[in-house]
From TrEMBL:
Protein's recorded name: DUF3494 domain-containing protein
Source organism per UniProt: Halopseudomonas salegens
Entry keyword set: Membrane, Signal, Transmembrane, Transmembrane helix
Signal peptide: 1-24
Membrane-spanning intervals of the chain: 249-269
Highest taxon of source: Bacteria
Keyword hit for Nucleus: no
InterPro entries documented for this protein: Ice-bd_prot (IPR021884)
Family: Belongs to the ice-binding protein family.
Amino acid sequence: MNRSQFASLIACTSLMFTPLAAIAQVAPPLGTADSFAVLGNSGVTGSTLLGTQVSGDVGSSPTASISNFPPSTVAPPFTLHLTNNAQVQQARTDAIAAAGFIAAQGPGTVLPAQLDSQVLTSGIYSFSGGAADLAAGGSLTLNGPGVFIFQVDSALTTNILSNTVGTADPCSVFWRVGSTATLNSISFLGNVIADGGVTVGDGSNITGRAIAGTGPTGAVTMAGDGGNTIGGCSTASETPASISPIPTVGTAAIVALVSLLLGGGLFGLRRRKVQG
């Protein structure tokens, strides 16, 4: 068990033994998934023509199917992972743990399924009927500091021309989705962690992450011709420590070494002559 898995286990265990009334919303530890803005299970498809600009790592595990990159792009210093490497595998494991960590925090305040014109502060929220739907042209306002947790037990849909706005830190907003997420907002705040697939509509902009397939399968699909963005919360992975250069010997040391060798050689020659 690595450190990120151990941290997730400890956090979940602490929640289990905390009285329900005392539980406050807590951001899930993301571990290796922290560097990712887009993470799939059965693949990632970028948008075409104008492409999608992603500020964060992009990868998919166990199916490393990445398409339409380019014209979609990953901004430096982040990485487009074209293989199911160890980092992507660990990111998926940590994303699954994060989804479980969020689910363990309970339903909190129950909202109507239809979101439009609500103004919310930090807290835990769930939805009557399990699904959440932001109306076309509608607006959801998230204001103030702290962590926002949204428990969407089935599907999340944000319709065309909708917006999520406000003073909340998008990186502290988490949407746990029990099935699929379809994001068609002009702007959307938060990290979507879905059991199923995540579809990002044409011209939609996500400040956060699109993580799909914490269930058995799920892809991230950036639909349409693009011109949109995803990211803003990812932290670039630490680069391996640079290899220290081989120590060099200074000129004075070389001169001293040569003098020592020459002196030893002359001493040896003189000794031979005396013995002869």
